[in-house]
Amino acid sequence: MKPLRLLTAAFVLITLTASEAPAADTVFPPGLRLGMTPLIGLTKAKSFPGFETEDQSVKVLVTELPPEAYAEVANALKTAPSAPNGAKPDKIETPAGLAYYTVETAKDGANDVRRYSMILPGNGFSGYVAVQVPENAAKIYSDEAVRQMFATAVTRKEVPVDEQLGLMPFKITELSDFKTVRTLMHGPAIILADGDEATGFEPKPFMMIGLIASQPQQAEDRARFAQETATQIPGVRNARVTMSEPIRINGMPAFETRIDAISGKDNIPVTVVQWIRFGGGTSLRIIASAPRDEWSAAFPRFRKVRDGIEPQG
To answer: What is the C-alpha separation between 191 and 197, in angstroms, rounded?
Structure first.
């Protein structure tokens, strides 16, 4: 996707009912480092990160993009000040820094809508906000009202660990002294790491924990399923399975698969273990990676986290 399209993309998920006066306090959607003061009448959205009106006709999507996205947009605007559709991005000062936003008229089916997109800098990420206002709400949620809301955008350095853990469909009772806890935007998943986004996760031990919707129908297919998913782990190259065997985790059937591989931009030799715990309609998948020379110290930590995962509620 070209950088400027970040400002003009038509979010089908997004489609403000209140006065132009902003609400009293900054609100951070759960798990996000970007927040703002939503206009009166906007409350926490039920099916996406952000805000919406009670009738769900006006929606504000709030999300995080990779850190380089903001710089790409800022640099692109120096040479091409107009977006591909002719919309001219404007600038706005926010507590988070200088933001760029666009406004355009579009169609949502047969209905006319106003669409707004804003990108701004964050610490280790780029913040992105997309708003859609139907024509029948445009007098209340005017261009100026949305601009006032954009101007309240603020970022926080970290999301509280308890807030992040509370978003997971499972309970993690042991963090094993990992320094970074970060939820992933796509799907119910979380990273525990000794590194961070700035340095990259691969040079140090880290874990990714989440659910996968698919699982083998028959117990005898679990070995093949585990090995196939292990060799398709994103970010690893030259993967070689060194061990794969059935185990039980907290009394439930599971499979442990280990691979030796190369990972990261610096081609770090790593050992990776994948645990898949089967049960119900979904499977718990845990991927843990460590540089090969740190494996013996990291593996007991990985197991402590694994054995401390319980059903939510």
So the answer is: 11
